[in-house]
Amino acid sequence: MINDLRDFINESEKKGELKRIRAEVDWDLELSHVCKLNEARGGGQALLFENVKGSKGVSVLGSALTTEKRLAISLGVPDNYRLCQQAREWVKLTSKENIPPVIVSEGPVMENVLEGDRVDLFSLPVPRFAPLDGGRYIGTAVSIVTQDPDAGWTNVGTYRMQLTDRNHSAIQIHHGKHADLMLDRYRELGKPMPAAAIIGTAPILFIMSSTTAPWGVCEYDLAGAIRGAPIEVLKSDLTGLLIPAAAEIVLEGEINPDRSTYGREGPFGEYTGYYSAKAGKEYLEPVFHVKRILHRNNPIFWVTTTGQPITDIHMFGALQISASIWSDLRDMRIPGIQSVYSLPEGCGRLTVVVSVKQRYPGHSTQVGHAIAGSTSGHYRLKNIIIVDDDIPADDLQKVWWAISTRLEAKRSVHVLHGTRGGPLDPAVHIEDRDVGSKLILDATIPFHWDRKPLLTRMDDAMLERVRKRWAEYGFDDNP
C-alpha cells in the first residue's frame, strides 16, 4: 500500500518509472522546462531533482503522474489498467463506506518545526513555471486544509499559491469553492480562517483534494475509501486542523477574510494552456499568513507542471473527473452506463465521453443532461459526448467514427445556456466567465428508430479461421 509520497517514489523507481537528476537545476524556469520536455515524450518518467539551486537538502518531484502506469501505482491497482479501467475501480471502491482519518500522536512531518524568524518560504525550492507567471508558485501540487466553523467538517482542496514574501502567499480560491464558502463564514464571524498547506502526500490524497466532492464530505474520508485504510493525521496544536502525519512539508497559519487585505496574484500559465489573466493584470486574492513550517528530514517538494496537455495535471484530472461523473450517474440510478472517459487531451476536465446501452427513448439525452447538472459535471466541464455501447468511451478512433456517422446536427446537438462557468476558460471573455454554456453531442443511434442503420460486420466463422492461420500468412504477432 502507498502510505506516503516516498512509498510512491520507491515503487515507481522499482518499476523503472522514476529518474533521479543530480545535476544542478534552477527553480527559475529550468526545472519546469525539463519536466515539460520529459512529459512530451509520451509522459516520460517521474523526475526527482536532487540538486535544486539554493535549496540544499530539499528534493523536488516532478512529472509524477504523467502515465497511466504511475496513476495505477498511486491507486494500488494493476499496472496494466488503462485510465478508464482505473476509473471503474475508483467507482467500485467509493461505493463502499468512506473511511475517516485516524488521529495519531506523532508522525515524520514533525521531525522539523520552524517558527518565528525561521519561517522563510524562499528557503523552499518553489518554482517559477512559465515566463509570464506573476511569481513563484507553491501551488500546483498543494492541498489546502480548512474547517467549517459551524459543522466542523474538514475540507481538503487544491488552490494555487503564489509567494508574496517570506511568510505570506496569495491563494487563488475560486468563487463558490468550499474554501471560499468557509472563508465567507469566517468573514461573518469576524475571525481569520485557520489553514494548512500540505505539500507531498500519498498521491491519492492529492488527487482526491482535486475532486468536486459534495459539501460536507471530507476528502480524507474519500481517500480512505480508495485505499481501504484510513489516512493517519495529526491534530495541529497551532490551528486545530487535521494534517497528514507523513506529509513532506506542511505550512500552517491563517487567512484573513477581510478583502482589504487581499494581495496580488497571477497571472499563471494554467492547465488550459493559457495564462489565467493577461500579463500584467493581477487578481486580488486572499493572503495566507504562514506562522509555522513543518517538514520531514530531507523533505521532497512535489510540483505538477501545467500548460498545454498532456501533463500530470491533465492525467490525474482525467482520472478523477471520469470516476466522479461515473459515480454521479450511479448515484442518480441511471442505467446502462458502460464507461466514462474524460480526455487528457481535453485538459483532463473539459471534455467527457460516455458510453451507454440505451434502454428507452430519450435515454441518451437523459445521460447528457444529467452529467451537465451533476456535482462533478456542472463546473468547468464544457463538452459532453454520448455514444452507444458498441463504442468504448476511451477508444477515440471509434468515438470520432460515431460522431461522424451517427450525429445529425438538428437532432443531436444540444447547447445549454446559463450554466456555471469556469474562471479559467479561455473561450469566454475574461470578464464574463462566471456564466457559460455546455455542448452535448449525442452520437448515438436513436433508440426509437424501427429501421436502424445496418452495421457492416465481418463473418465470425471466417475471422476464427483467419486467426488460426495467422502465422501461416507470415505474420509474427497475433491479430
Would you kindly provide a written description of the structure presented here, covering whatever features stand out?
The chain has 479 residues and is of the alpha+beta class. It has two domains: 5-302, Pnp Oxidase, Chain A; 332-443, 3-Layer(aba) Sandwich (UbiD C-terminal domain-like). The chain contains twelve helices and 22 strands. The strands form five sheets. Strands 5, 6, 7, 8, 9, 10, 13 and 16 form an eight-stranded antiparallel sheet that branches. A five-stranded mixed sheet has the order 18-19-20-22-21. Strands 1-2-3-17 form a four-stranded mixed sheet, with helices on both faces. A hairpin with a 6-residue loop joins strand 6 (142-147) and strand 7. Helix 6 (203-209) crosses helix 7 (219-227). It is globular, with a radius of gyration of 23 Å.
Please describe the structure with a list of short key phrases separated by commas or semicolons.
479 residues, alpha+beta, Pnp Oxidase, Chain A, UbiD C-terminal domain-like, 2 domains, eight-stranded antiparallel beta sheet, five-stranded mixed beta sheet, 12 helices, globular
Strand segment tally: 22
The CATH superfamily of the largest domain turns out to be Electron Transport, Fmn-binding Protein, Chain A
Percent strand equals 15-25%
- Summed up, the helix count is 12
What's the rounded overall pLDDT mean?
Answer: 94
Question: What's the level 1 CATH class of the largest domain?
Answer: Mainly Beta
Computed structural class: alpha+beta
Helix content: 25-40%
Report the CATH topology name of the largest domain: Pnp Oxidase, Chain A
Unreliable stretches (pLDDT < 50, length at least 5) are none
